[in-house]
């Protein structure tokens, strides 16, 4: 019998997402229960959006949760490299193999040409899709254009009719018509593979036997299945996990729920409770108990207990469960966890320089800097009354700053200052004019220690969370305003 091998394949393009941890947890449990291996692979073929910082955050966040992998970019293993950006030659070789076998072809279309093709199709009332024009080129012409160094991509052929049957471990056979599939690009003009090629090649070469991934990938499954067929490879067992949802049933999004794992760490959730809660997403223990450990979950894991109704990721429910965990800790362990959370020397050393010059006694520290040890702050709209800006402008400023900070990848005082400065300039104001709004949002007080330093120390998760909270306190932002202000944001650059 072959060993079960599962994997998680995150793209390092932003904050470490709870959805990544959720899928990782289920893959881990499945592998462990079968005495198999769990692999972490980094899918960083999007050169523009992928960063090493984000990759490191994914490692740290998963480890904080207690999720460990047997092979991966940072731990090595026999099937490396485990970072797709380091596997370029492998993908090229396999893309060429498909061309030689007649399953894929070169396409030299310029973006403008494709744009025009789609516009014409739309004008005729057709669904825009690649019309196969690359297939019309003669072998000689292809050679000539390749030799001339013309930019090109490699696309896969797909059947134009019929049905693809996707065997899903949760839903059974799912039928998807082929006419919904486009002739997918496999190799981009920059010589890097797309998700489809890299994912199939890697899952095969890394010996992956079971793929548990989010159901957002189900509609494109036929392309993966076709690629396995073209290569003549056995396809792994597929399992499309239900998507996490906001309490209003929409897809989990950071607009409605914090989605970054580090947010939960900063808020003082216990990793065990987080994992427990993620394990409750669409799955339950045979005895339906709510509180269970990773070891319990591995022992009792069973795909047939996954239910397909969209699991709701609800902060209140998570907090309740976290409370259960916290209250059952031996008190020494509780104290040790609190210390590790924020009463550790490293964190205190960041805060010390800000408070030392402002207090006469240690007992003044808590009233001055208690916000460093808080999550949500008690706010009231009166705190945000502004000398120069009316209430709508105040909300606009807060929203613009929040958006700028949501896009900020490197979090330091200089860059934070620059973001706020940009918004200020747009309103012909100075940086210091906006500070009276930042203080209450971030510290809960009209004045405190340096707020820009505080934002740097609090980090992106808590800072953004508090700005969102402040906006809520001020009445929120309507859909119409969001649209209008997004234009302003674009103009800010
Ligand atoms: N890189 C994909 C992602 O970020 C992997 C999806 C899959 O598991 O195939 O979700």
TrEMBL record:
Q: Which domain of life is it from?
A: Bacteria
Residue positions of motif 'HIGH' region:
10-20
Q: Where in the cell is it found?
A: Cytoplasm
Q: Where is the Aminoacyl-tRNA synthetase class I anticodon-binding domain?
A: 333-471
Q: Which GO terms describe its biological process?
A: glutamyl-tRNA aminoacylation
Q: What residue intervals hold the motif 'KMSKS' region?
A: 251-255
Keywords on record: Aminoacyl-tRNA synthetase, ATP-binding, Cytoplasm, Ligase, Nucleotide-binding, Protein biosynthesis
Q: Name one GO molecular function term.
A: glutamate-tRNA ligase activity
What does this gene product do? Catalyzes the attachment of glutamate to tRNA(Glu) in a two-step reaction: glutamate is first activated by ATP to form Glu-AMP and then transferred to the acceptor end of tRNA(Glu).
What name appears for this protein in its UniProt entry? Glutamate--tRNA ligase
- Source species of the chain: Pseudomonas mangiferae
């Amino acid at each position: 019998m072959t060993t079960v091998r599962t994997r998680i394949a995150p793209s390092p393009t932003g904050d470490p997402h709870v959805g990544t941890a959720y899928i990782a947890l289920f893959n881990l449990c499945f592998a462990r229960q079968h005495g198999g291996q769990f692999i972490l692979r980094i899918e960083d073929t999007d050169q523009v959006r992928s960063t090493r910082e984000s990759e490191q955050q994914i490692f740290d966040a998963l480890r904080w949760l207690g999720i460990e992998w047997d092979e991966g970019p940072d731990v090595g293993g026999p099937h490396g490299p485990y970072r797709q950006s380091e596997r370029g030659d492998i993908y090229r070789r396999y893309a060429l193999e498909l061309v030689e076998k007649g399953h894929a072809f070169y396409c030299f279309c310029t973006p403008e040409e494709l744009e025009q093709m789609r516009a014409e199709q739309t004008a005729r009332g057709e669904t825009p899709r690649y019309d196969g024009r690359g297939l019309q080129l003669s072998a000689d012409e292809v050679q000539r254009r390749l030799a001339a160094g013309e930019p090109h991509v490699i696309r896969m052929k797909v059947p134009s009719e019929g049905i693809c049957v996707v065997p899903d471990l949760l839903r059974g056979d799912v039928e998807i018509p082929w006419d919904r599939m486009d002739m997918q690009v496999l190799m981009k003009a920059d010589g890097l593979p797309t998700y489809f090629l890299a994912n199939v090649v890697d899952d095969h070469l890394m010996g992956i036997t079971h793929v548990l991934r989010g159901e957002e990938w189900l509609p494109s499954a036929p392309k993966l299945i076709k690629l396995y067929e073209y290569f003549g490879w056995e396809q792994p067992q597929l399992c499309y996990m239900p998507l996490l949802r906001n309490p209003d049933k929409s897809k989990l999004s950071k607009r409605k729920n914090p989605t970054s794992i580090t947010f939960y760490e900063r808020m003082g959730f216990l990793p065990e409770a987080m994992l427990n809660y993620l394990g409750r997403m669409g799955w339950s223990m045979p005895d339906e108990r709510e509180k269970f450990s990773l070891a319990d979950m591995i022992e009792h894991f069973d795909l047939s207990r996954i239910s397909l109704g969209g699991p709701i990721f609800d902060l209140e429910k998570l907090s309740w469960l976290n409370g259960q965990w916290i209250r059952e800790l031996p008190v020494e362990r509780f104290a040790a966890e609190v210390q590790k959370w924020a009463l550790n020397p490293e964190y205190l050393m960041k805060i010390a320089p800000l408070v030392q010059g402002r207090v006469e006694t240690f007992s003044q520290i808590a009233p001055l800097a208690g916000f460093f040890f808080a999550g949500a702050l008690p706010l009231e709209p009166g705190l945000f009354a502004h000398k120069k800006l009316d209430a709508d402008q105040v909300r606009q400023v807060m929203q613009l700053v929040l958006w700028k900070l949501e896009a900020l990848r490197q979090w330091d005082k200089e860059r934070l200052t620059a973001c706020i400065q940009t918004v200020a300039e747009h309103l012909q104001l100075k940086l210091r004019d906006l500070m009276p709004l930042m203080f209450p949002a971030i510290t809960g007080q009209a004045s405190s220690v340096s707020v820009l330093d505080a934002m740097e120390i609090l980090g992106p998760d808590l800072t953004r969370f508090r700005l969102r909270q402040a906006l809520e306190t001020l009445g929120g932002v309507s859909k119409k305003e969001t649209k209008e202000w997004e234009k302003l944001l674009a103009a800010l650059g």
